[in-house]
Amino acid sequence: MSAALSESTAAGVEERELTDGFHLIIDALKLNGVETIYGVPGIPITDFGRMAQAAGIRVISFRHEQNAGNAAAIAGYLTKKPGICLTVSAPGFLNGLTALANATTNCFPMILISGSSEREIVDLQQGDYEEMDQLAIAKPLCKAAFRVLHAADIGIAVARAIRAAVSGRPGGVYLDLPAKLFGQTMDAEKGAKSLVKVIDAAPAQLPAPDAVKRALDVLKGAKRPLIILGKGAAYAQADEAIKQFVEKSGVPFLPMSMAKGLLPDTHPQSAGAARSTVLKDADVVLLMGARLNWLLSHGKGKTWGDAPKKFIQVDIEPKEMDSNVEIVAPVVGDIGSVVNAFLQGMGANWPAPPSDWVNAISTKKEENIAKMAPRLMNNKSPMDFHGALGALRTIVKERPDAILVNEGANTLDLARGVIDMYQPRKRLDVGTWGVMGIGMGFAIAAAIETGKPVLAVEGDSAFGFSGMEVETICRYNLPVCIVIFNNNGIYRGTDVNPVGGDPATTVFVPGSRYDKMMEAFGGVGVNATTPDELSRAVNAAMDSGKPTLINAVIDPAAGTESGRIGNLNPQSVVKKK
């Protein structure tokens, strides 16, 4: 063997025996079952994305980090494994941070991984490229935040991030990776040994037997009981046990919006069509994976009426108890374990709730459904919200396996009540904060993580926050049908600037054709002016699986200020002189 060849062979051996930060991060993620990364490429993570893709991880590149972060968050909700979002430093990190904070608020497991500037320059504020102390900024907005400075610590850092994201109450975790880390080298064998496969990341948390008995005693003694199912119950994926418990109890149930479908909205015990009545008149309320936040009027006030209430609450987070009102029977544990304990403790002869309560709810439901029916069957042109949603309601009933993504003001508020769901985790919406802009990120991740067709029903204002991702949908050829309820503005398109000149602050370009956007990227665009046209277009899109955007022309005068939460929008009573 020549000296040159021998030297080359030795160099090759040496090269094979080294690994670096790029490979260790990828290997750590793969070891822990990560199959998809959502993100936006750029300095310093451009090559990392390429290498992850080459290693068999699916890397979905977005047009904006906030949308990639929302995709990662809802992927976490759907799979119970932390969704991964990858961003560049500083501005890219900040864009992803909105999604991370929203994931934490909504209890979605997610890890935001961002490249960052070098510590020594950041700490001395010497003006590095995109210099920012990202770790300090992230800490108040997520469950946990970690920075990795040495390649040998990558394995343990990824393990800690995964465990923090999914254990207890799930949420967002930030992982800060300075640019130098990616290129750091170490012995390959030592590197492999430094990786950690997370074992039992979200262990069951069994409820105390006394707490279970107390809760069942309170529920058994109720004259007008009610069960409220929150998205925490849907996240738990204890679907069959929850169904058995609700049906065995005989208690009417009210699902929060993302818990719709845990039991079908058409189930005889569903009280969704009598929401106001059951909240006002119930005497015992069992909260399962639902929080008494603003969405439930904090458990007090006019919404809850004058009847005295006893609350039972099931949550994995002890600090949630007594957050707004007294909880007479707190049950701390994971929902699957709690529900199984309830079933065991109920025995064989659980008494049915009083028939007068059940019958009163049934009567109210029938009245409200009958009152709503004609509004959902109109075929006006331009459409109103009810006519358009009536058409979509039928489609979802015929396609219960499809995933519905929903955001907007009136578009969200009305769809929540009109469109029935039949299977769990098929309705994805704005969640606890009520933020706009989740639509396209949620739709993309839902299609990728489940392989199911997605119907995204968007207000025209809400769509504007993430609309450029229609190019992403077309690029990956995803089975996503977007319906934009276009009424020419925010809330409605009829406002007028009182002093002339610029358009009113809530008005968009009249007659906008959002469908042309989709056509520009090779997808299918349709302009629908009646519920019949809308129905035909959505069915065609769902049958074809092609990326489709339907511009649903809604009467500009349709819609109310701030949807159904106008009471949260302060109004001035002072008149200018």
From TrEMBL:
<comment type="pathway">
    <text>Metabolic intermediate degradation; oxalate degradation; CO(2) and formate from oxalate: step 2/2.</text>
</comment>
<dbReference type="InterPro" id="IPR012000">
    <property type="entry name" value="Thiamin_PyroP_enz_cen_dom"/>
</dbReference>
<dbReference type="Pfam" id="PF00205">
    <property type="entry name" value="TPP_enzyme_M"/>
</dbReference>
<feature type="domain" description="Thiamine pyrophosphate enzyme N-terminal TPP-binding">
    <location>
        <begin position="21"/>
        <end position="137"/>
    </location>
</feature>
<dbReference type="GO" id="GO:0008949">
    <property type="term" value="F:oxalyl-CoA decarboxylase activity"/>
</dbReference>
<dbReference type="GO" id="GO:0042802">
    <property type="term" value="F:identical protein binding"/>
</dbReference>
<keyword id="KW-0547">Nucleotide-binding</keyword>
<dbReference type="Pfam" id="PF02775">
    <property type="entry name" value="TPP_enzyme_C"/>
</dbReference>
<feature type="domain" description="Thiamine pyrophosphate enzyme central">
    <location>
        <begin position="212"/>
        <end position="341"/>
    </location>
</feature>
<dbReference type="InterPro" id="IPR011766">
    <property type="entry name" value="TPP_enzyme_TPP-bd"/>
</dbReference>
<dbReference type="GO" id="GO:0043531">
    <property type="term" value="F:ADP binding"/>
</dbReference>
<comment type="subunit">
    <text>Homotetramer; dimer of dimers.</text>
</comment>
<keyword id="KW-0479">Metal-binding</keyword>
<dbReference type="GO" id="GO:0030976">
    <property type="term" value="F:thiamine pyrophosphate binding"/>
</dbReference>
<feature type="domain" description="Thiamine pyrophosphate enzyme TPP-binding">
    <location>
        <begin position="410"/>
        <end position="551"/>
    </location>
</feature>
<dbReference type="InterPro" id="IPR045025">
    <property type="entry name" value="HACL1-like"/>
</dbReference>
<dbReference type="InterPro" id="IPR017660">
    <property type="entry name" value="Oxalyl-CoA_decarboxylase"/>
</dbReference>
<dbReference type="GO" id="GO:0033611">
    <property type="term" value="P:oxalate catabolic process"/>
</dbReference>
<dbReference type="GO" id="GO:0000287">
    <property type="term" value="F:magnesium ion binding"/>
</dbReference>
<comment type="similarity">
    <text>Belongs to the TPP enzyme family.</text>
</comment>
<dbReference type="InterPro" id="IPR012001">
    <property type="entry name" value="Thiamin_PyroP_enz_TPP-bd_dom"/>
</dbReference>
<dbReference type="InterPro" id="IPR029061">
    <property type="entry name" value="THDP-binding"/>
</dbReference>
<keyword id="KW-0460">Magnesium</keyword>
<keyword id="KW-0456">Lyase</keyword>
<dbReference type="Pfam" id="PF02776">
    <property type="entry name" value="TPP_enzyme_N"/>
</dbReference>
<keyword id="KW-0786">Thiamine pyrophosphate</keyword>
<dbReference type="GO" id="GO:0001561">
    <property type="term" value="P:fatty acid alpha-oxidation"/>
</dbReference>
<protein>
    <recommendedName>
        <fullName>Oxalyl-CoA decarboxylase</fullName>
        <ecNumber>4.1.1.8</ecNumber>
    </recommendedName>
</protein>
<dbReference type="InterPro" id="IPR029035">
    <property type="entry name" value="DHS-like_NAD/FAD-binding_dom"/>
</dbReference>
<keyword id="KW-0210">Decarboxylase</keyword>
